[in-house]
Amino acid sequence: xKWLPRLLTGLLLSTLSLPAAGQLQKEAAEATQQASQKSxxxxxxxxxxxxxxxxxxxxxxxxxxxxxxxxxxxxAEEDGLAPPLLVVLTSTINExxxxxxxxxxxxxxxxxxxxxPLAAGKYPxxxxxxxxxxxxxxxxxxxxxxxxxxxxxxxxxxxPQPDDKLLRTTHYQLVVEAPNGKRAEDYPMLLHVYGAxxxxxxxxxxxxxxxxxxxxxxxxxxxxxxNSGGIEIYKGHVDLDSALxxxxxxxxxxxxxxxWSKCAALGPGFYAARxxxxxxxxxxxxxxxxxxxxxxxFDAKKLPDPSEPPTARPPAP
Length: 317
Known about the structure:
six-stranded antiparallel barrel
């Protein structure tokens, strides 16, 4: 069974809707095309309406953990086991330089949202979700627009003021097809799965639709896998390589203990999610199962921020 992102398509002035497979990059070209149809007399005005921000890129840095060894990186990407690769932009948003823009590359064997260096220049853009994500319009080699998505964070030494007018610019929201009995508003969070997963399965068992590299043998086999959209397992453990609402400081995982366990290694893409428990230790992620939206429950653990001081504790008696 294949598990897919569950975010839908369409275009509204204040709503960003997503394709059924969750592939956000397709929406940018569709948005531009529809905006042009709305205002054939002035397509540039329609584009400015849908993408009211202007990002000027002066430098685009590709962080290759292998340094100048491109051959090792190419081999790691071919195997689907490349370490996290980042693209960092030196840029301004409407001539303001209060933000850092970074994208992290998805598993290239099943990539749905490209993350590559950008040429110096100006790009139409808009806030996505809660403003932790920015969508830029980039022309590809065929001269057509496609969307690129960058995580946004305020600079600690030069943050924007609370009344900064850019923060009040329209935030485009995701339109979600919710399961029966639920509303789209019940899923306020955005989970970005990068596609590389770590599985622990009983020895001798293999997941379907996966290419795996084994790293240890024991009663449980540890392996790194490349999947083709998602892997359903009935026994074992899954750690997702993902970010929650723009934060990479989370461990998102699930355990399968029996035949009807709902645990899956989700493929790359954006997924709508909600808190499942009041203590915020579990999230419910929407995935497409048999053509219908269904919730998959994952444990969510916030990792400590090394830049923050430890929580004060009373002295031991």
